[in-house]
Specification:
The protein is an alpha/beta fold. Helix 15 packs antiparallel against helix 16 and helix 16 packs antiparallel against helix 19. It has a five-stranded parallel β-sheet with strand order 2-3-4-1-5, sandwiched between helices. The relative contact order is 0.07. Helix content is 55%, strand content 6%. It contains 22 helices and five strands.
C-alpha cells in the first residue's frame, strides 16, 4: 500500500498560492504604496519595521505584503485569523514570540480579518505591541475607524489597498496563463471577460483561470471564447458584502445620486446593489428615507411613489417589483429637492432635548370636565374654522415665553415654493392683527 501511495503525484498547490509573489518587484498593483518613494517601499528600504493595518477589499495582497515583510526583515511570521482564533490563541502566539526573541529572532504577528475580533480580544494585543515583542500587522476589509479599537489604531499606521485595475488584472492574467496553461489560447474578448468576472480581486482571477483551464481541458476547447467562459462559470457575482463597508458605500452613492438629481447614476447604483444580492425591500426603505429627507414637501408624490414601489415588490417579487423600485429611484432623482422638513425636524428635536418641560398654555388645553373649565382651560381659544379664511390671525400655539423659532424654512422649489408663499401670507395676517391689537391698546 505504501508503494502505491509513493507512486501518486503530490497534490498540486492552488494557483493563487503557487503564484504568491516572493519579492516586492513581483507584486502587481498598489503602486501608490509600493512605487518609488511611496510609504511601504520606504519601509522596506529603511529596514525599520512598524506596526500597521492593511485596509482593502479581498484579493488585493494584504497577506502577501505581510509575508514579504517577514521575509525582507528576516522575522518569524505568525498568522492568526479572527474567524477561528480567540484570546487563548493570542496568548499562545505571544508565548512563541517570546521563545523566538530568546533565540534573537523578531516576530511579525499577522492578524487576518482583525475587525472580527471584539474589543477584549483586540485589547489583548496592546501590551505585546507596546513592549515591542511583536510587530503587529492587521488586515481588514472594513473601515478600521469603526472596527478597530482606538488604542490599537493609534499604535499602527493605516495603509489603504486598492482593487486591481483592468490593466493590472490583464497583466496578472497573462502571468498566470504562462505559469499554468501556456498551451491554452484565449481570445481577447475572453480574457477581458475573465478579468471582468474577477472584479478587481487577484485571488478570484487566479481561481477563475484554474477553473477555465480544467473546463477547457475536459471539453477539449482551444482557444477559449467568451461564450465558453459564460458557459463554464457561474453567474458573475460582484464583490458585495451585505454587512460590510462596500454595502454602505454603495447605499451612500445611491443616496447622493438621487440628491444630485442624476437618474442614470441612481439606476446604476440601484442595479449594482440588486445584482450584488441586496434585499430589494431594504433598498425600498432607503428610497422612502430619501423621499422624506431630500424631497419632502417640494414634491409629496415622491413618498407615495416610494411606498407604492415597496408594496408592488411585496406583491409581485422579482423582477416585476424591482422595476417599481427603479421607477421610484428615477422619480426621486428627477423631483424638486428640499431638506427643509428634515432640517426643521432635527432642529426641533435638538431644542426639545435640551429645553425644559414648558407647560401647555391655558388657552390650548382641553377642558373635558367642569373643573377644568372653571380653571380656565381652553378659555379664549379661537377656533380657526370660524375665523376669516380659516385662519386665526395672531393666535399663539407655543408655550408662554417662547418665541416662534422659525425652524421650517421652505425652499423656492416645487410645491414648497407655494407653501412658502402661503406661510408668508399668513405671517402678514399675523402682523396686521398684532398691529390692530397694539393700536387698540394705545387708544384705550
Amino acid at each position: 500500500m505504501a508503494d502505491l501511495f509513493d507512486t501518486l503525484d503530490p497534490p498540486r498547490l492552488p494557483l493563487a498560492e503557487a503564484m504568491r509573489p516572493q519579492a516586492i518587484a513581483e507584486v502587481i498593483g498598489q503602486r501608490h504604496l509600493l512605487g518609488p518613494g511611496k510609504p511601504l517601499a520606504l519601509a522596506f528600504q529603511s529596514g525599520k519595521l512598524h506596526s500597521m493595518i492593511l485596509w482593502g477589499p479581498p484579493g488585493v495582497g494584504k497577506t502577501t505584503l505581510a509575508r514579504l515583510m517577514a521575509k525582507a526583515f528576516d522575522a518569524e511570521f505568525t498568522s492568526l485569523s479572527a474567524v477561528f482564533s480567540g484570546v487563548k490563541d493570542i496568548r499562545e502566539a505571544m508565548a512563541r514570540a517570546e521563545a523566538e526573541r530568546a533565540r534573537g529572532r523578531h516576530t511579525i504577528l499577522f492578524v487576518d480579518e482583525v475587525h472580527r475580533f471584539n474589543k477584549a480580544q483586540q485589547d489583548a494585543f496592546l501590551p505585546y505591541v507596546e513592549q515591542g515583542l511583536v510587530t503587529f500587522i492587521g488586515a481588514t476589509t472594513e473601515n478600521p475607524s469603526f472596527e478597530v479599537n482606538s488604542a490599537l489604531l493609534s499604535r499602527a499606521a493605516v495603509y489603504v489597498l486598492e482593487s486591481l485595475t483592468q490593466e493590472e488584472l490583464a497583466e496578472l492574467f497573462e502571468r498566470a496563463r504562462l505559469h499554468a496553461c501556456p498551451e491554452l489560447c484565449f481570445e481577447d474578448d475572453a480574457r477581458d471577460r475573465l478579468t471582468g468576472f474577477a472584479d478587481g480581486d487577484a485571488r478570484k482571477l487566479l481561481n477563475l483561470v484554474e477553473q477555465i483551464q480544467t473546463a477547457a481541458e475536459t471539453a477539449g476547447v482551444n482557444p477559449v471564447t467568451p461564450a465558453f467562459i459564460d458557459e463554464a462559470l457561474s453567474r458573475n457575482l460582484r464583490r458585495f458584502d451585505k454587512g460590510g463597508e462596500a454595502f454602505y458605500d454603495q447605499i451612500s452613492a445611491l443616496h447622493k445620486s438621487v440628491r444630485g438629481s442624476d437618474p442614470d447614476a441612481a439606476l446604476y447604483w440601484l442595479c449594482r446593489m440588486l445584482d450584488g444580492g441586496a434585499d430589494p425591500l431594504y433598498l425600498g426603505r432607503r428610497l422612502v428615507r430619501m423621499a422624506i429627507e431630500d424631497i419632502g414637501l417640494a414634491d409629496p408624490r415622491a413618498l407615495e411613489i416610494c411606498l407604492n414601489g415597496c408594496t408592488t415588490y411585496e406583491r409581485l417579487g422579482s423582477p416585476e417589483g424591482e422595476l417599481a423600485l427603479a421607477q421610484a429611484a428615477v422619480f426621486l432623482a428627477c423631483a424638486a429637492k428640499s431638506n427643509a422638513v428634515y432640517k426643521a425636524y432635527n432642529a426641533a428635536r435638538q431644542f426639545v432635548k435640551q429645553d425644559a418641560s414648558r407647560p401647555v398654555p391655558i388657552h390650548l388645553r382641553n377642558a373635558p370636565t367642569k373643573l377644568m373649565k372653571e380653571l380656565g382651560y381652553g378659555k379664549a381659544y379661537r377656533y380657526a374654522h370660524d375665523e376669516p379664511d380659516g385662519y386665526a390671525a395672531g393666535e399663539r400655539y407655543f408655550p408662554d415665553g417662547m418665541s416662534p423659532p422659525g425652524w421650517y424654512e421652505p425652499v423656492a422649489r416645487g410645491l414648497e415654493a407655494r407653501i412658502a408663499e402661503k406661510l408668508e401670507r399668513l405671517r402678514a395676517l399675523d402682523r396686521e392683527y398684532e398691529a390692530r391689537q397694539a393700536a387698540r391698546g394705545l387708544s384705550e
